[in-house]
Amino acid sequence: MTDTSRRKFVTLMGASAVAIPVSAVIGTLPSHAAEPVDLASDQAVALQYVAVSEVEGKNCGNCTLYQGDEKSGMCPLFAGSEIPAAAWCSAHTPTG
Ligand code: SF4
Fold this sequence. Notes:
The chain is α+β, with helices and mostly antiparallel strands. Helix content is 31%, strand content 11%. It has a 4-stranded mixed sheet, with no helix packed on it.
């Protein structure tokens, strides 16, 4: 190995040592890092969004648009916001 290639190798290894821990941290960020839906937003008002469903048997957790687990997730109608599984809006579309 020449001095030049050794230098490149050492530089790459140093960069990898930094990059791996950063990507590991980003990959483990909790989904609740997103903000909750702004209840006063035009979208929330138009779709009558509520954080806790008042409609028997209907909530985000059983809506086809919901992407999350039994606690919280995301919905494309409220992109970038955290949606509780217990929430509901008038665009609810039941699964199955
Ligand atoms: S469409 Fe409405 S009910 Fe369905 S996941 Fe999105 S916010 Fe919840």
